[in-house]
From TrEMBL:
It is found in: Cell membrane. It is a peripheral membrane protein. Keywords: Amino-acid transport, ATP-binding, Cell membrane, Membrane, Nucleotide-binding, Transport. Residues 17-251 form the ABC transporter domain. This is Amino acid ABC transporter ATP-binding protein. InterPro entries: AAA+_ATPase, ABC_ATPase_HisP-typ, ABC_transporter-like_ATP-bd, ABC_transporter-like_CS, MetN_ABC_transporter-like, P-loop_NTPase. CDD domains: ABC_HisP_GlnQ. Belongs to the ABC transporter superfamily. It holds the Pfam family ABC_tran.
Length: 255
């Protein structure tokens, strides 16, 4: 057995993503209000809440698709850089999967997973292709590698989008309603890939209305309303005994 030094042990427990006093406005709208959030490596955090509560904006600030007005965000101990190559590199460490799959329509499935590896991570093409084929296999679309996105079902496209994000070897994956645009029969194949990622130890932030997924895969549920984290708890505690009226009201409408 190798010895773990004290500093290694401390690093293993240091939070991977930390938001501290984060505020964000869109004009007069105070869309994120004093957000404090600390996510440990390997943790799966599910974010739920009514439409317009700031869930997407929260995700987008974590990989700097949105700037913040005040507060700090660190990924693995480093503050989010404002721009430039540093930002591109850091953003690559934060994978994001959107409701709309956002694949490049004029590139094959394989190219979709190869491109950013070559451009951002400077991986040699042959290696990038091997990685891409492996990942496509892992998410169950290996046979679709040479097709174009439009030839795939929504569920398959979303799994390609997940493979594409994973190809950047992210430290954390953000999912913003990844199954909301899918036909019902395709929801599970995507959730299954996400469950497997979670079981493999990926750190994940997942905005979703899939309460079954939240109950079974989340370590923690955050409930947002009006730009604030109103409540956070284990899924069991949250779903069986929500504390706030906002959460009770929300759950009564969706469960
Ligand atoms: P959610 O994902 O919880 O539905 P969002 O984070 O998308 O909420 O949006 C929160 C609020 O911010 C909403 O009122 C939305 O209309 C507003 N908003 C989101 N993006 C923008 C933007 N780029 N410009 C102005 N307002 C925005
Ligand atoms: Mg949203």
């Amino acid at each position: 057995m190798t010895e773990t030094t004290a500093s290694e042990a401390a690093a293993a427990q240091a939070p991977l993503v930390v938001l501290s006093g984060v505020n964000k406005h869109f004009g007069a709208l105070h869309v994120l209000q004093d957000i404090d959030l600390s996510i440990t490596a390997g943790e799966v955090v599910v974010v739920i809440g009514p439409s317009g509560s700031g869930k997407s904006t929260l995700c987008r600030t974590i990989n700097r698709l949105e700037t913040i007005d005040s507060g700090t965000i660190t990924i693995d101990g480093r503050p989010l850089p404002a721009e430039g190559r540093e930002l591109a590199r850091l953003r690559a460490e934060v994978g994001m999967v959107f409701q709309s799959f956002n694949l490049f329509a004029h590139r094959t499935v394989l190219e979709n997973v190869v491109l950013a590896q070559v451009k951002v991570r400077k991986v040699p093409r042959a290696e990038a292709e091997r990685t891409a084929r492996d990942l496509l296999e892992q998410v169950g679309v290996g046979a679709q590698a040479d097709k174009f996105p439009a030839q795939l079902s929504g569920g398959q496209q979303q799994r390609v989008a997940i493979a594409r994000a994973l190809a950047m070897k992210p430290k954390v994956m953000l999912f913003d309603e990844p199954t909301s645009a899918l036909d019902p029969e395709m929801v599970n194949e995507v959730l299954e890939v996400m469950r497997r990622l979670a079981a493999d130890g990926m750190t994940m932030v997942v905005v979703t209305h899939e309460m079954g997924f939240a109950r079974s895969a989340a370590n923690r549920v955050l409930f947002m309303a009006d730009g604030r984290i109103v409540e956070e708890n284990t899924p069991d505690a949250f779903f069986t005994s929500p504390r706030s009226d906002r959460a009770k009201d929300f759950l009564s409408k969706i469960l």
